[in-house]
Sequence to fold (258 residues):
Amino acid sequence: MTGEPAETIDAFHRGAFHLLQPKGRGHRAGMDAMLLAALVADDRPVRVADLGAGAGAAGLAVAARLAKAQVVLFERSAEMADYARRSILLPENAHLAGRASVVEADVTLTAKARNDAGLIDESFHHVIMNPPFNDAGDRRTPDALKAEAHAMTDGLFESWLRTAGAIMIPGGQLSLIARPQSIAEIITACGRRFGGIEITAIHPRPGENAVRILVTGIKGSRARLSLRAPLVMHEEGSHKFSPLVDDFNNGRAAYVRL
Fold:
């Protein structure tokens, strides 16, 4: 007698790409990754780094939507990096496999160690990230793989944005999704590395508090910060996604900077 499979193959962007993920444990990709991918609006032949990529949902979503994008998935966990590699090799992803690769590396490394790990200085046009978001005081999960993906540490945004700034070309774009309570730490970590910061609050429904923020910034820019009009995910009294958010979720549109 065999048990249920320990992993699943899940379709995203209405079948435009597929993802191999652990079942019943670890972090399973969803809407956050798709919204993050929607922040990359660039039809040029660009190089995109997905930091803390997990199984590769956000990076592969970018590759699926942008036919000229080369995507590198950086992941510290050996197990999740293996899921990302096997996801790329799925037959359903043959059309993008040549433009996606995986590097097993800790994105908090610095200087020579960072470069030696494959996080090469000034080599990417876009850096995207969905960093761990659980505070130390949050209830800890017994799932070790999920805990590693979700546990926020002190100085996390400083270390991740330091790496993003280092590996990005001048004028390159940072994109991230986070919880609203991280906004001050994100702005501080951007410092003089990134300017022209645009922040969009994501609300479940009209009148409900924001549950996520989308943040973009440009390396070396001195432009002022902008608070954009909020995104509302669902129509009032409904679980149906708004047309615009549904387009982001399914790779039909990008969320273009102002």
